[in-house]
Amino acid sequence: MGDVSIPDGSDQVQCPQGGPVTNGSTHQVVILGAGFGGIAAAKVLANQPVVVTLVDQRNYHTFQPLLYEVATAGLEAGDVAYPVRAIVGRAPNIHFRLGTVTGIQRQERVVCFAERGLGHIANSEPCVNDLPFDSLIVSSGAVANFFGIPGAEEFAHPLYTLDDARNLRNHILLCLEEADGQRAHASDGTLNFVIVGGGPTGVEVAGAITELLDMAIARDGFRFDRSKARVVLIDGQDHLLAPFLRSARNYAMSTLRNRRVEVRLGEMVSSIGPGSIELADGTVIPTRTAIWAGGVTVLGTVASTFGAVSCRNGRLRVDHSLRVPGAEAIFAIGDAAEMRVSPDSDDVCPQLAQVAIQSGRHAGAQVLALVDGIPTAPFFFDDRGIMATIGRRAAVAQLPRGPILKGTLGWLAWFALHLVYLVGFRNRLVVLVNWTWRYLSWTSGPRVIVGLRGSNFDSNGSLPVRK
Ligand SMILES: Cc1cc2nc3c(=O)[nH]c(=O)nc-3n(C[C@H](O)[C@H](O)[C@H](O)COP(=O)(O)OP(=O)(O)OC[C@H]3O[C@@H](n4cnc5c(N)ncnc54)[C@H](O)[C@@H]3O)c2cc1C
C-alpha cells in the first residue's frame, strides 16, 4: 500500500480559543463519507470559517487495508476501526451525523439524509431529512463489483467493510470446526477456500488463510488433514498483482506457491453456488468459502446517481479541480471519483487510500478557495508507491522511483507503514503488540467466533450459506 496518513485520535482536531464563528450565514459544507477521503477533507476544514457536516452510515472510520487481517483472525475488528467523533469531534465547526445519504439534489443544493435507527436504516422515502449545503464533497467510496456473475453476490464473501471481515472470519472458523476430525469434509469443499481476484487484496487474503490453516493444526489442536485443505487463488489475467512490475508479481507468485496456495491464472469464474465455484472451462471446485476480491464499482452507490459516470466502473467524472462538471459547488474524491493524475495527463488515478487522502485534502482546500472568492487549483497526484503483503516476512513494496523491496525488507516496510498510519494511538499499540507477539511466537490473533445469531449450523448440522 502507499502512504495512507490520515488524521487520528492522537492528532485530534483542536480548536484554539476564539475559533471560527459558526452561524446561519456561514458557508455550509457537507462531506459525504468518513473514509480516507472524507476525513482528510474534514481535517483541512477544521477550525476554518465554514460549518461542516460529516455524514456516514457508520460511526467509525475503517482502515480497509487491514480488513484481511480481521477476516483471517489476525486482528480484532476494533483494531482497524476508529470512531469518527474521536477524530473530528473536538473541532467546533464539524458536526458528525450518523445516517445514510439517499440522494443528492444538485440544483437545490440539498443532500437527502436518512437517520440511522436502532439497527436499521430508515430509508423508505428519500428526503425525509435534508441537509442543505453551499459546498458538497462526495467521498462515498465504492462497493464490491460482482460483474453479474451468477451466484457471486449471493454466495461469495466480499471484503469491503468491517462487517464483511467479521462475517468471513466467523465463516472460516466455523468451516474449520466443522471439518475437524471428519474426513468427509475434505472432499465436500469445507476445507477449500477459493479467492477470486489476484490483486493485492486477493494475494493478501490467500497468504493469510494458508497461514491460518497451518496455525490451526500446529497450535489449536485441529485434527483435519492439512494436505487435503486447499487455498485456491483465481484470476482471469495471466499474472497476479496487476499494478506491480514483473519482478514483484513473480515474487508474489512463487511465494504463494511455496506456501501451498494453488494459483490459477488466466481462468474466469462463470458461476458461484452454495457448495462450489465453476470456471469457464467447466472445472468445478467444491467450496463453501468463495471470497470475492474481484474489484469494485461505484455503480449503485449514491455517487453514481447524479453527474456523468465512467462506463467502466461508475466513477463520477470530475474536472481538474475535482468538481463535478456543471455543479460547481460539488466536489468528488477518492474511490468515488474518476480523476486524472494531473491536468495534462489522461491517466486516471487508481482507487487507493493515498489518492483518497490527497484528493480529500485538495477538495477541502478548494472549498476554502471558493469561500475566499479565489480561483480553484488543479489536482496533482503525488504517487508514493504501492505495497502488498503475502504473509509472514513476505511482501512487495514498489516505490515510484526506487527499487522494489521484497521479502523481509518489503515486509518490514509494509509493517512500519501500516503501523505509522493506522488510525489512533491505541490501535497502533494493539496492532504492534499483536503482530510482534504473532511474529515471535507463531501464534495468531483472535480466533474467536462472535456475533452469530441463533444456531451456527442448519438442521442438517451443516454450515449455513452466506445468504
Ligand atoms: C480490502 C481492501 C484492502 C485495501 N488495501 C489497500 C492498500 O493496501 N493500500 C491502499 O492504498 N488502498 C487500499 N485499499 C483501497 C482503499 O482502502 C480505498 O481506496 C480508500 O478507502 C478509498 O477512500 P474513500 O474515502 O474514497 O472511500 P472509503 O474509505 O470507502 O469511505 C467511504 C465512506 O463513505 C460511507 N458511505 C458510503 N455511502 C454512504 C451513504 N450513502 N451514506 C452515508 N455514508 C456513506 C462509507 O460508510 C465509508 O465510511 C483497499 C481496499 C479494500 C476494500
Backbone structural class:
alpha/beta
CATH class of the largest domain: Alpha Beta
The CATH level-2 architecture of the largest domain is identified as 3-Layer(bba) Sandwich
Q: Main sheet?
A: 8 strands, mixed
* Percentage beta strand: 15-25%
Helix content estimate = 25-40%
User: What count of domains describes the coordinates?
Assistant: 2
How many beta-strand runs? 25
Q: Compute the gyration radius: what is it?
A: 23 Å
Shape: globular
List the ligand species.
Answer: flavin-adenine dinucleotide
TL;DR of this structure?
The chain is of the alpha/beta class and 467 residues long. Helices cover 28% and strands 23% of the residues.
Search tags:
23% strand; 467 residues; disordered N terminus; eight-stranded mixed β-sheet; globular; alpha/beta; FAD/NAD(P)-binding domain; 25 strands
Describe the structure.
The structure is a single chain. The chain folds into 2 domains: 9-57 and 99-144 and 297-372, FAD/NAD(P)-binding domain (3-Layer(bba) Sandwich); 152-294 and 387-450, FAD/NAD(P)-binding domain (3-Layer(bba) Sandwich). It has 11 helices and 25 strands. The chain has helices at 36-45, 67-71, 84-88, 152-155, 162-179, 184-187, 200-220, 246-258, 353-372, 407-421, 425-441; strands at residues 27-32, 50-56, 60-62, 81-83, 94-105, 110-115, 129-132, 135-138, 143-144, 157-158, 192-196, 230-235, 261-265, 269-272, 276-279, 284-286, 289-292, 296-297, 316-317, 323-324, 327-332, 337-338, 386-391, 394-398, 404-406. The strands form 7 sheets. It has an 8-stranded mixed sheet. The protein has a 5-stranded parallel sheet with strand order 10-17-11-12-13. 28% of the residues lie in helices and 23% in strands. By secondary structure, it is α/β, with parallel strands linked by helices. Mean pLDDT is 86; it is low at 1-23 and 118-124. It binds flavin-adenine dinucleotide.
